[in-house]
Amino acid sequence: MNTKLHAICDSQGRPLNLFVSAGQVSDYTGAKALLSGLPDVQWLLGDRGYDADWFREALKDKGIRACIPGRKQRKKAIRYDKRRYKRRNRIEIMFGRLKDWRRVATRYDRCPKVFLSAIALAALVIYWL
Predict the structure, then answer these.
(1) What PANTHER family does this protein map onto (predicted)?
(2) Cα–Cα distance measured from residue 85 to residue 87, given in angstroms and rounded to the nearest whole number
(3) How many Cβ atoms from other residues are within 10 Å of residue 119's Cβ?
(4) In whole angstroms, what separates CA 89 from the centre of its chain?
(5) Disulfide: which of 63, 70, 103, 126 matches 74 by Cβ 3.0-4.6 Å?
(6) Alpha carbons 94 and 97: distance in angstroms, whole number
(7) pLDDT tens, position by position, 30-52
(8) In this predicted model, what pLDDT tens digit does every residue of 68-121 receive, in sequence order?
(9) What is the CATH number of the domain that holds 10?
(10) What is the tally of structural domains in the chain?
């Protein structure tokens, strides 16, 4: 069983909100689930998997500017701030630190709820204690 972990992080790379979806499901599902839990911020950095017009419009309605590169299949290229996008490495570092916990890296738990609780426990110990 594959899973995808979607996360909202602050500017220092600490996770604020986590969501687990099935591995074969599109990233749009995670984006839709996390949209209501977005904090009041000026920018949202995301990878190409979150490039959707409806998601960009939802962010604009909340007053958030998107820094998401466009998918390669787009007919019209999307402009984004490349210097700001380089800061997304903090998010990748956060995922790497979570995978330092063996239970998270090898995904011992079959149940997604138990797996998400293990991730939440690891994030709590690593970033908030």
Answers:
(1) BLR1914 PROTEIN, PHP DOMAIN PROTEIN
(2) 5
(3) 24
(4) 12
(5) 70
(6) 5
(7) 888 888 888 888 999 888 888 88
(8) 998 888 888 888 888 998 988 898 999 999 999 998 888 888 888 888 999 999
(9) 3.30.420.10
(10) 1
- What is the span of the domain harbouring residue 91? 3-128
Three-state secondary structure readout of the chain: CCEEEEEEECCCCCEEEEEEEECCCCHHHHHHHHHCCCCCCCEEECCHHHCCHHHHHHHHHCCCEEECCCCCCCCCCCCCCHHHHHHHHHHHHHHHHHCCCHHHHHCCCCCHHHHHHHHHHHHHHHHHC
Distance CA 43, CA 83 (A): 13
Question: Which of these, 112, 110, 53, lies nearest to 78 by C-alpha position?
Answer: 53
Is the CB of residue 60 less than 8 Å from the CB of residue 38?
Answer: no
- Our CA dihedral for 28, 5, 82, 76, rounded to 10 degrees, sits at -20
